[in-house]
Amino acid sequence: MPEHRVANFGAGPSALPEPVLTAAAAALLNFEGTGIGIAEISHRSPEFHAYIQRTAALVRSQLQVPATHEVLFMQGGGTAQFSAVVLNMLARHRLKYPALKEEERIAEYVISGSWSKAAFGEAQRLAHGASVRVAADSRAHSKDGKSFDGLPPHSSYTFSQNPAFIYYCENETVSGTQFSGTASPSDPHSFPYHLLPAGAPLVADYSSSFMSRPIPRLGDHAIIYAGAQKNLGPAGVSIVIVRKDCIVDVDASLKVGGYPVPVSLTYAPYAKQDSMPNTPSVLAVFIVGLVLARNEELGGVGYYEALNRGKAGRVYGALRAGEERGVFEGKVREGQGSWMNVTFGILGEGAEKRFVVGAEERGLKGLKGHRSVGGMRASLYNAVTDEWVDQLVAYMREFVESETKKPIEA
Question: Which of 17, 275, 344, 385 could form a disulfide with 73 if both were Cys (CB 3.0 to 4.6 A apart)?
């Protein structure tokens, strides 16, 4: 067993800042001077109630969430939001357009990777007769016609005029693709906000990039959600930013042909009761609050945007150097790769195993790619330090030199 913490490049649950872990460990025995540990304290206690309100306020201030939106903490991870989005937004649409035929009620999905594909599949299960269609699919523009090796070009998007919602995943952790952080129509790698129909509710899964940089046109989104276990805390809680007009009485939709929505997936009671219609994930919310407080001290998303741009740039630089030598193989088209999840293959018989063994010997953990696609994946979330990244880059260069028997020029 290592006597020190190793470099954790795992895709999630992922690394947390050491000061946060130290503070959380202390709070397991005594939360804010109550004499009760954070894992034991009642969520109805005044101390925790104040804490969850402060944590929501930190999300709001750091991302500049407008007053038109609520900040909620829900359970079930991003997968639960696959369902919650469909059920709440279709209920809303039925209330707004009760005379519309169900097949004319449309939920639209941009499919750019495994997680948006999974969300699309869940929508098909839960649509109850509404139409679920693909607005764009990056696979149609890939090298082999079936891989997620890039983003859909702007010219490929086809949106309906009055959809119940339009859904996209900003960063795909499995394939390692990510929309750029701009809203510029001239940026071919941006999400095409300029093509959206007027008034169309926009829903985004930000699970693996939340708080890593500013969110373009946040106020124009109906819903933004993120599982905490990438950049904010442990698994067990999701942050859901919901525009207030999308928080509806789902039971009222039953009178106009709607369907029951489980209370645990309904936004309204969470908005009404400070995210506590039932017992929340108290410990997970607590750690999220610690991370956000530390983020604020460091400079918030502006600080992390600069940090993460630098980390990703160095890893992609080492990847390109390895590609030039025929050792590494990038999995994503240039300019469309994720800042958070850098994916690549290793060429040559037995080379992948050699790379992993060498990484493990150097304390570089969690570099294997997702089981569905294989290869390597270096996840560079906020808590992954510059020091860890420098160690990874040095090893990547060392590995290339070892495989080719030639040094890489600086």
Answer: 275
- The CA distance from 21 to 2, in Å, is 17
Q: Give the C-alpha separation, 362 to 4, whole Å.
A: 12
Cis bond before residue 13 (omega within 30° of 0): yes
| Integer Cα distance of 165 and 389 in angstroms | 38
Give the distance, in angstroms, between the CA of residue 83 and the centroid of all CA atoms in the same chain.
Answer: 16
Do the Cβ atoms of 97 and 73 come closer than 8 Å? no
Tokens of 366: 């969690």
The Cα angle at residue 152 between residues 151 and 154, in degrees rounded to 5? 120
Question: Do the beta carbons of residue 288 and residue 40 sit within 8 Å?
Answer: no
CA distance 167 to 204: 6
Q: What pLDDT digit, counting tens, does each position of 25-34 carry?
A: 999 999 999 9
- Two structure tokens written together for 363: 């304390």
- Per-residue pLDDT reduced to its tens digit, 202-237: 999 999 999 999 999 999 999 999 999 999 999 999
Read off the pLDDT of residues 7-54 as tens digits, 9 standing for 90 and up.
Answer: 999 999 999 999 999 999 999 999 999 999 999 999 999 999 999 999
C-alpha 276/C-alpha 273 separation (Å) is 5
